[in-house]
Write a structure and sequence with these properties.
It is a single chain. By secondary structure, the chain is α/β, with parallel strands linked by helices. It has 3 domains: 4-67, Archaeosine Trna-guanine Transglycosylase, Chain: A, domain 4, CATH 2.30.130; 76-186, 2-Layer Sandwich (Transcription Regulator spoIIAA), CATH 3.30.750; 204-392, Vaccinia Virus protein VP39 (Rossmann fold, 3-Layer(aba) Sandwich). 26% of the residues lie in helices and 26% in strands. It has helices at 13-16, 76-90, 130-134, 136-143, 208-217, 232-239, 252-265, 279-285, 308-325, 343-357; strands at 4-7, 21-23, 27-29, 39-43, 49-55, 60-67, 100-105, 114-119, 122-127, 153-156, 173-176, 183-186, 189-192, 222-226, 244-248, 272-275, 293-296, 330-336, 361-368, 386-392. Helix 9 (308-325) links the parallel strand 17 and strand 18 (330-336). Helix 2 packs across helix 4 (136-143). The chain is globular, with a radius of gyration of 22 Å. The N and C termini lie far apart (64 Å).
Length: 393
Amino acid sequence: MYPVITLKPGKEESILRHHPWVFSGAIASLPDGLEEGDYVTVADSRGSVLGFGHYQIGSITVRLLEFGTDRMPDDFFFHRLNNAATLRRTLGLIRPDNNCFRLVHGEGDFLPGLVVDIYGDTAVMQAHSPGMHFERNRIAEALTRLPGISIRNVYYKSETTLPFKARLDPHNDYIIGSFDGNIAIENGLQFNIDWLKGQKTGFFVDQRENRALLERFAKDRTVLNMFCYTGGFSVYAMRGGAKSVDSVDSSAKAAALTDANIALNFPDDPRHTTHAVDAFKFLADMEPDRYDLIVLDPPAFAKHRSALKNGLIGYRKLNAKAFEKIRSGGLLFTFSCSQVVSREAFRLAVFSAAAKSGRKVRVLHQLTQPADHPFDISHPEGEYLKGLILYVE
């Protein structure tokens, strides 16, 4: 048995419902000598075993890996990874015209603190907990053994995702293999993936299905893709037959990556233009009625609950400006990736902006994260991406 963390009376209820987090306020006693990332057993106030997981200092003190036992099965990580891979095969994501997807989505794949994205034969791994950081080599080795997925390279990218208080000093580097190309295929389109220096794991795979939906609406429309990053929505709009596409990002590097992805799929196509400028300034300065399809996919305006109020104000202002400028009969694709912003709060922010604009607005689709970003029904915190497609008269 691992060192035992005992809970206060009555604090086991959420764990009995298989919520994977044990909060510091629920703990009655900690064993001496615990280190960040240690395996621990969690027991209720009567001593009954509730499960085991990784210990860390902070509000979330334990991330549970298994319930009702204190024994890790043989080859635990391989079996969890293989189950995740089986789900992706069931979803039809592993095929010749699509070799990029999320293989592990933390708690949604019963591996809390771990994210793994696949880009061709390279797996990009991120640890969000010290426990997963210490298991990185074992996880990387298991990834290369998965049937039906040929992973030759495993890149570890956790310098910005691990809790700084743990003082782990992680370094981004290849655990297995090396760099041998960075082009991946999503729904038949090619993308340069910058996992070495790009945001997250290098590409926002969570917008794949929403990009495909935009492609259906893009024909003959004048498209504005705000906060474009790698230009994913822009590439899909081009394939969908858009009349013209403008991509906007404050990062010159992101703008260059967007240009590279457009050129990869539509060389010398005059329909696309990139603007490396501040998105809010671009919206404020642009002429009304220029665009009849606008994409608002900003970075998280509220990463913590303390920033929630200001984040909602940001969403209202951003969407209000889009409602003010979009052409009559236009479509607005608007998103929030802030986990602390609920679906209801985001809708209210957008609806408030619509009401203030005086435009008639109808909801065509309510959007979310794709199936390779599942969330456990016992862990609703795993639902983070929300979006709307709006028809503006």
